[in-house]
Amino acid sequence: MNAMLRPRLWHMLAAGPVVGILSGTLSYWLQYWIDPAIINRPIGQYAWVVLFNVLAWTSWLLFIPLNWRLASAVRIRRERFIKPTLFHAAASLALAAVVCVITGYEQYLVMTWSGVTQAAGQPLTPAFNLKRIFLYSFEWKVLLYWGIVGVHHAVYYAHVLTDRELREARLEARLVEAKLDALQRQLHPHFVFNTLHAIAGVLHKNPDAAESMLVRLGDLLRAVFRSHAHQEVSLGREIELTEQYLDIQRMRFGPGLAVELDVPAHLRDTPVPVLVLQPLVENAIKHGFAGRTDGGTIRISARLAGDRVEVTVGDTGRGASADEVARARDGVGIANTRARLEHLYPGRHSLTVTAPPAGGFAVTLSVPATAMAPDEELAEFLDIPA
Fold first, then answer.
1. Which residues neighbour 20 within 8 Å (Cβ) at sequence distance 6 or greater?
2. DSSP letters spanning 216-243
């Protein structure tokens, strides 16, 4: 428990006179309101009333650190209830009795010094005054003990609950981060193997193009291998990374592969998962260029839709049947992208796969429309000028 919350002996020693003066002043005016003539007797004079309250409250407050330590040493728990309760019951009686004895003698001394010789019509003696103190204050001193135990337990278990919630939040964050890392690590081999397969397809037909593709792949892999430290990049930089991938594919398909970008400048600061567009572009090439010799166009567009940014990757291919769309939704690239969106933006994202009536294939994802703070380290991550 936070040490600042523990009552200190010197704090109680300093608080005693303050509380005593306030309590004595209140007692004095209450006595005067009930019986104005009491101020003519020593027991009702302000100085003696305040002195007694200062001594009584200081004596009690000095026992609070001990009370607190006992509550800390013997905590009442659900699984361990009876013995701690019995301990505190005995401790409350013992501590209340000790404080009553001290207070009784303090009151006797103050009354004697003030000139009082009788109380309640009987001669004032230490024993008689002690009985009066036990009769009038023993029970509320017991209750005060239990009140301090209750406050200690409330503070302690609130602290425990806060720590537990903090640990759970950290564990949950680490779990989400681990899942995201696993998804990225799943995506990277899939992307590399597919790209190497594309390079192998042109290796014998055009060795120079294959060599250039390998160089481009090396540049792209350098960014990919650094991406484990970043879950998000700006949409503008994600597009630049995607264009590096498209450069490789252009060497494969030649001038037949056209790319159209329609991404407004004010949306380029939107954070998106790193490498989120590459599997969508790969999917568009797969569906848009399969079996075609005349090439086609990959379209990447973005627009603001309410509080989200929608990014669409489509192609001008032959389109897809309902079965092909269903299979695409379950493919590695789409499934991986959907899982990453869910972990990064739970409840604040969407991903749809469609086959527009005009032909082609389209995947649209939406993410929260927030701006990403500039980060020069990401320039190094992509090997582009900051």
1. 50, 53, 54, 55, 56, 57, 58
2. HHHHHHHHHHHGGG-SEEEHHHHHHHHH
Query: Beta-strand (E) ranges in 307-369?
Result: 308-315, 350-354, 362-368
Q: How many helices (H) and strands (E) does the chain have?
A: 11, 9
> Over the stretch 299-353, which tens digit does the pLDDT of each residue have?
899 999 989 999 999 888 776 667 777 777 777 678 878 888 888 888 889 999 8
Ranges of each domain in the chain: 3-169, 204-382
- Could you tell me which residues come within 8 angstroms of residue 238 by beta carbon, excluding any fewer than 6 positions away? 272, 274, 275, 276, 277
Q: Which residue has the tokens 């009066």?
A: 132
Partners of 313 in beta bridges: 300, 363
Which carries the bigger pLDDT value, residue 154 or residue 178? Answer: 154
Model pTM above 0.90: no
Q: pLDDT digits over 179-217, tens only?
A: 545 545 544 555 666 677 777 777 777 777 777 778 777
Judge whether 371 and 270 are in contact, CB under 8 Å. yes
Q: Return the CATH fold of 204-382.
A: Heat Shock Protein 90 (3.30.565)
